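Notes from the 1:1 (GR / supervisor)

We went over the backlog. Supervisor wanted to see one worked example end to end before approving the batch request, so GR pasted a single chain during the call. The sequence is below; no edits were made to it. Supervisor asked that the structure be written out right there so they could see what the output format looks like.
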Amino acid sequence: MRNAISKVTIQTLLTFLYNSLGSDNSVIVLSSCSWPDSQNENALKFFVLADTHILGDYKGHWFDKLRREWQMKKCFQTSVRFFNPDAVFVLGDLFDEGMWSDEKRFKKYTNDFYDIFSANSTPLYAVIGNHDVGFHDQLHPLRLIWFYDAFGMDIIELVVLKRYPFILVNSMAMENDQCIFCSEAVRMITSLNLTLQCAKDGRNGHCYFGNVTEYIKPIVMQLLEILQPRAVFSGHTHHGCRTLHNDGEVQEWTVSSYSWRNKNNPAFLMVTVTDEDVLVNKCQLPRESTKNGLILSILYQIQPGHLLFLNMKTVSAALVLGISFE
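Structure output shown during the call:
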């Protein structure tokens, strides 16, 4: 009985420490972030996130879900409140187990996502990832319909914000093997390219794809050479980097995962767009290892005799699974 009570006590203490330290730590860390400098008052400013991996019913442990998704929620809501972006883009793998879900679970994961990433009046645009609907050979029309109903994202989507066109791409439909999804993607890309060329030629009144009113090189959420983008943002790898294409004319930013589950030091991008520039700053979130160290130091003060002989593997298991130290 005492062991059971002790286990519950430790779990409750860990939950309290993670939640309370997460709130304070996120404010401190995010205060060092800033928008890229721009003198243009009409500049478009937006966040780019990727790979949030909301945990599912099969592989997600309740304590892992609680601490890591709480962290994402506090960081995201603090960021939106501090920086007031014009829009937020999330580049795929919103869910961890969407590709295995039935409709009921898909709706549950969608509700979990919106609970964490509630942006109030800020527009949020989600790109489809393989963990959301499956890889190319696992695509099913129903999951694409569920995703469209939840987030308004088709195979190819055009979004125009403050005159600037953004092209959102379902990369699972880019296999070019003439499957029904790939054929539709090619058709939509061709139509979109014609619209952009139409606007470029000054025939704005006769361009029918979306609400493009003038030609500005698009920003692509996945790289497509045919569209000649001015910048590309992509996710999937969980690690951030910058790649130059076309002899340095086009920058591709690969965005880090936003979740501690995938990365000790998650991050997101703060982007400022003007007619002349696409400016990018990387904003780091609190490190999970830093938070673990703070908690272990507090627990050591509470029960020093128990923690003196714990190795890091034991401590890690205790933090992830919520097991008792006794």
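Supervisor's comment: The chain has two domains: 1-32+287-326, 35-171+233-286.
Batch request approved.
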